[in-house]
Specification:
Blueprint lengths: L5 E6 L9 H11 L5 E6 L5 H5 L6 E4 L16 H7 L3 E4 L2 H6 L4 H13 L3 E6 L3 H5 L3 H12 L9 E5 L13 H19 L7 E5 L7 H5 L6 E4 L6 H9 L4
The structure holds 1,3-dihydroxyacetonephosphate.
1,3-dihydroxyacetonephosphate binds next to strand 8.
């Protein structure tokens, strides 16, 4: 199976305004020098359509989608609606949504399946809390989370996984490289166990306080297929060096 390119995605969360299309354009221009990297930005849904027209080779994604195709779900957006606006994929199961909106593993699997049905990609997030890390059972907890969140049809053609330790998000704290390597190896084993050969082709991104200073080391860890970047993706000055750090 051919190795997929590194995948570097910015999650803007609830940040940004229409004027920040200038940030996207600066990122898109710099990304042209790194055609071997799959680069993405997930702005708030209100910016997807405006950004999609100025994205160049940067793939625009959404931060969530509803599992249903349509219906009485006030305030929600379906995969097809996001696709029509210009999103090629969406993040599902981010820990902030699991915590704020009470999303379950089953909800996350249904959202990923809805994206696949619409012909879109998905980035499925998993990760342990600090309490779970300190319990010494992080690997068992996160692999179980992945197994329960994984849609049956998953393959590397449309699905990526992001390992984001909750305690590393927005904190400036990052697991030691050996811990990232051990978690990614365990997630790979789970993917292969659940999906067979298709599980070998799913990219596993790392997320949580990735910045220009630590990106090279993190992206060189075995089975780290890219990064899901929060704060450092909001500015071209901090996001572009992370794209540049991605190995070929
Ligand atoms: P930070 O890079 O700001 O820690 O956020 C990571 C994240 O949650 C990306 O989805």
């Amino acid at each position: 199976m051919a190795k997929l390119p590194s995948y570097i995605v910015g999650n803007w969360k609830m940040n940004g305004s229409a004027a920040d299309v200038a940030v996207l354009q600066a990122i898109a221009q710099a990304a042209e020098a790194h055609p071997h990297v799959d680069t993405g930005i997930c702005p708030p849904a209100t910016l997807i359509a405006g950004f999609a027209a100025h994205a160049g080779q940067v793939q625009i994604g959404a931060q969530d989608c509803h599992a249903k195709a349509s219906g009485a779900h006030t305030g929600n957006l379906s995969a097809a609606m996001l696709q029509e606006a210009g999103a090629a994929y969406a993040i599902v199961g981010h820990s902030e949504r699991r915590a704020d909106q009470g999303e379950t593993d089953a909800d996350v699997a249904a959202k990923a399946e809805a994206l696949h049905t619409a012909g879109m990609g998905a980035i499925l997030c998993v990760g342990e809390t600090l309490e779970e890390r300190d319990s010494g059972h992080a690997i068992a907890i996160v692999t179980a989370q992945l197994a329960a969140s994984l849609p049956a049809s998953a393959s590397g053609d449309w699905l990526s996984v992001a390992y984001e330790p909750v305690w590393a998000i927005g904190t400036g704290r990052v697991p030691v490289s050996d811990d990232i390597a051990a978690m990614h190896a365990a997630l790979r084993a789970t993917l292969v166990e659940k999906l067979g050969e298709a599980g070998k082709g799913v990219r596993i991104l790392y997320g949580g306080s990735v910045n220009p200073g630590n990106a090279t080391e993190i992206l060189a860890i075995p089975d780290v297929g890219g990064a899901l970047v929060g704060g450092a993706s909001l500015k071209a000055e901090t996001f572009v060096p992370i794209i540049a750090a991605a190995p070929r």
